[in-house]
Structure formats: C-alpha cells, structure tokens
Amino acid sequence: MNHDQTVTAPDDTSATIERALATRDLPTITAELAPLTASDAIGVLERLGAKQRALVYRLLPKDRALEVFEGLDPTLQGDLVQALRDEEVASVFAELDPDDRVSLLDELPAAVATRLLHDLPPAERHLTAAVLGYPAGSIGRRMSPEYVSTRPELTAGQSLERLRARLDDAETVYTLPVVDARRRLVGIVSLRDLMTAAPETPVAEILRAPHSAQATEDAETAARRCADMRLLALPVVDAETRLVGILTVDDALWILEEAESEDQARIGGSEPLRRPYLSTPVRSVVRSRVVWLLVLAIGATLTVQVLEVFEETLEQMVVLSLFIPLLIGTGGNTGNQAATTLTRALALDDVRPRDVLRVLAREVRVGLSLGAILGSVGFLLASWAYGTPIGTVIGLTLLSICTMAATVGGAMPLIARIVRVDPAVFSNPFITTFVDATGLLVYFFIAQAVLGL
C-alpha cells in the first residue's frame, strides 16, 4: 500500500488550476499538472469537489495517474471510481494492491464493488477475496497477501533467487518470513542477512525468532506493535500460525495516523471526517458534529437543573453566581487534561485497564496538588475582593473540583476500555458535562456550609 504522508501542492499551482477549472481551460490544467510530483498532484485533487477531481484526474499523465490514485484516501478513491468511465476504473482497480482494493471496496456501493471484483483476473480476485474475508477493523483486512517467503532448508542464494523472481509484485523485499512445509511461520530473515551470508548458507542458520500478529487481531494494536518494535514488516498468521500476509511499516503508520485522527475528533466532540477537510461536503461536516452537540446540549440541562435547585442560595448571596464560569471551566479543563493524557497512554500501551486503581491513586494526588495551587490563588484573590468567607468557599471548591475532575478524567478512559467502548468517546465531551453538574453541587454545598445559607 502506498500512501503519501506529507501531501502538499504549491499554492500558486492549485490556484491556477482552480481558476482554469472555472473557465474550462483544459490546456492550462494539463500544462500545470505535467511537472507536478505525485504528492503535489494529490494535494491539488484533495482541494477539489468530486466532479472537478474526476476531470483533473483524467488530465494527469498516464504514467502518474495510478501512483496518484494509490495515494488518495479511500473515500476520495471511491468518489473517483463513481465518476470515471468503466474502462478507466477497471484499469486502475486491477493495478492496485489487494489491501488497497479492499479499502476502496469498503467505500463503494455493493453493486459497484461486485462489478469491479468480477472484472478482476482470477488470481487477483482470489487475493482480494482472501483479505475481504477477515472482520472489519482486523489486521487481516489491512495486511498484504503479496509477500515473498522462504524455507529453512533453502540456502541464502536460493532465497535471493526467489526474491528476484518476485520483485515486481512483492509488497516488501526487506524482510522475508520463513515458513515450513505446512506454511507455518518459523522465523524471519532480513535481506541484509541474506546478502551478507555465503550463498550456500542454509536459511535455518541465519533466521531469527519472529514477531507476528493474528489475522483477527485489532488493526491498531498490531500496527502499534509493528511501529514500537521498529519492524519493517510484521508477519500476519491465522489461528494455526500459518502465514497469510504481512503488515509493512508504512501501512502500520497509516493505520496509526487514522486512529489518531479518529481519537482527536472524538475528544473534541465530533466524528472523524475520514477525508481531507476541503473535499468533504458541508452536509458531512454538519453530520459529524450535530449528534455530539445534541448529546452535549441535553447533558447541559443537568447544570441548569442544579442551578434551579440552588436558586434560593443564589438569591441570598448573588456574588456566588460570579464565580460559576470560573469553577466549571477549571473543573472541565482539569478533567479534559487527565482524560487526554490517559487516552494517549492507552493508545501507546503505557497503561492497561488493570492499572485503573494505580491511575486513580496517581490522579487523586495530581488533582489535590493542582487544587491546592489553584485554590490558594482563588482564596487570596476572592478574599481580597469579596471577603474571607467568600475566599474560603472559592478556595475549598477549587481544591475539591480539581481533585474530583482529575480522578474522573483519568479513570473514564480506562473504564471505557474495560467495557469495550472507544476511550475517546468518554473523554472531553462527557467528562466536561459530568464535571459541570457535579462541580456546581460541590460549590453550593460548600457555600451553604461555610456561609450558613
């Protein structure tokens, strides 16, 4: 799979092409596209609407069109497939790697996907169907079935000959899985080891113990392991340790980038767009945000109800209302900091769900420390402006809210993982709503106790 990690196009080129599209000046577009690299062309296409993108893609030089198509997000590939002519689509689709085909098929209507699969050569159809057979979200769905393997009894020279014969269709040549007669994974050998060993050296003498992933394993987990271990390729095996594919490091990094984008979107209270921003229809942007906004708006009614319950307290001491934005904002920020830190730690496998009690203990101490610092400042400023009793209420409330928010914010991602829910979903939006309501309860209870209301 070939994905450009940094996709940019010169601003003047993009602007020129967009102006030429407005006047249907095709010669100018063709001239501007000719000197662009594949990554620059991708940057241009990502800024265009679906119809404009199909037109510009048709004007790309033939030798660069496939490379550009491979570098696009699967959602944009799907848009192009539905806009191009059947013969153009069949030509590009047949040239894709099997794992790239599967990502594209997931974005297409069933009828279109079936037709494309039917038009593939039998060998390519078999490889693609093998990847399609694994559950969505598993590493089997993202692996490449096009690999070069060797056998323990073969020599280094024979293995290099096998490699040379498959150079054109192999996903990677830098790491070779070693399998036995039943195709079970027994080791790996690097291209460097094969080239430095004497040609008659048996592979069994230079192979290393393999790291592998189960084909049904979560794709992000397997990709994280591949990246953490700095592996160029991670073999993927079935339940009987038979080799079924490989995950290359560039595919692993692409999976992790997708997961990071998804987490960041959900932490911010929206759904991931799954395509470049400028190429996303406005209705899709609205749809990605509106559900969360409705959920948060409903959750915010808890805060309104708390204020209604303590309406008489506010009438007796109106000055208390001045500090409500400060207190709920501080509590929400404290909880969000803890949740973001723990969500990231979970993604990096720094902590596990079984560490929930250790995390609670740490976050209680962190929250107390933060609360003591902010509470002291709040006490001094509020006492100077409104008197010591109000300062005491504000200081104690900040101490309590910071401790509670840090504890809840740290625990919620772990609890979410335990109940098999995306930790990002339980991060900032829900924690902010929870801390706002409970923080106000704490505030008014402290005010009643200290001020005798």
From TrEMBL:
Keyword annotations: CBS domain, Cell membrane, Magnesium, Membrane, Metal-binding, Transmembrane, Transmembrane helix, Transport
Pfam family, one: CBS
UniProt-listed Gene3D superfamilies: CBS-domain, MgtE N-terminal domain-like, SLC41 divalent cation transporters, integral membrane domain
PROSITE patterns: CBS
CDD domains the UniProt entry points to: CBS_pair_Mg_transporter
Cell compartments where the protein resides: Cell membrane; Membrane
Membrane topology annotation: Multi-pass membrane protein
Domain CBS: residue ranges: 143-205, 206-262
Cell membrane listed as a keyword: yes
TM helices/strands, residue ranges: 290-310, 366-387, 393-418, 430-451
Subunit structure: Homodimer.
Family of the protein in this entry: Belongs to the SLC41A transporter family.
General function of this protein: Acts as a magnesium transporter.
Record-given protein name: Magnesium transporter MgtE
